[in-house]
Amino acid sequence: MMRLRFMSTNQWACDSNKSAWEEKGLDCSCDARMPGFLKYYLETKPDVLGLQEVTDKMADKLMQLFSEQELPYALLWGRRTPILYRTDLFELVDSTFLIYPEEVLGCEGRFNNSKTKSYNAAVFRVKQSGKLFALMTTHLWWKSSDPASKSYQPFSDEARMHQIGLAIDCLDQYQQKYQCPAVLMGDMNAIYASLAVQHALSRGFSHAYDVAVEHRDEGNGHHYCFPDGYLPYTPSAADEAIDHILVRDFEQDAVRTYDRYAPDYYMPLSDHIPVWIDVEI
Known about the structure:
Elements: E1 3-10, H1 19-23, H2 30-44, E2 48-52, H3 56-68, E3 73-76, E4 83-86, E5 90-99, E6 118-126, E7 132-139, H4 156-178, E8 182-187, H5 195-202, E9 206-207, H6 208-211, E10 215-216, E11 225-226, E12 229-230, E13 243-248, E14 255-260, E15 275-280
């Protein structure tokens, strides 16, 4: 078997510096932040990256940096949810992309701000062994169903459940066609107990946190990093995470680790700490 690393990262879609950062002598522009992501990926060495909140400018800059380092990554377009994968390890077999519909049947309102919420899915063949796997990165609707929240919008939980249902429908088709295991990762804007995550579990997925056999990170992977500045990462409980990696139909004990890494230099890059799994295929 081959041990592979699949990582999910929400990179915070921010191309230019903000006045509040500039006043503090800081820079949150794309040009300032992307070298930090390069450093992070050089240190953590992901084999496949499922990304969210990536602008065209950010993607171009990261791929330029990868090229300068002679790193063998290819970019699979997915608007704000691209996939990066190592071409020396994998062959792309199939792929598809969907921007989630703005409307959800039976739910009043619109649930896709600027059409930024989507999924990007691919089937890869491992060159060394010939084995196949499907991998999807997704970003779900962001508002809250809690009337006490500043971001309250009715039916938000139901909208996220509907969106993840569409994502799983796609993976169902890929798994039936290619008879392979599947990974579903991304910023789901929903905690473990949410309708969206629980719907995925009801459809045969397992949370990588639950099935990792060697190590699992106990934090939530989220901290303050927004247009008015950033703060250090103080982890909350793992079940409060909104970034998830879900797996289905891997061999028993295939998921070895579920992990995060939060160095100080990462704090001004994004409000989401990357999460990854090491899996044996």
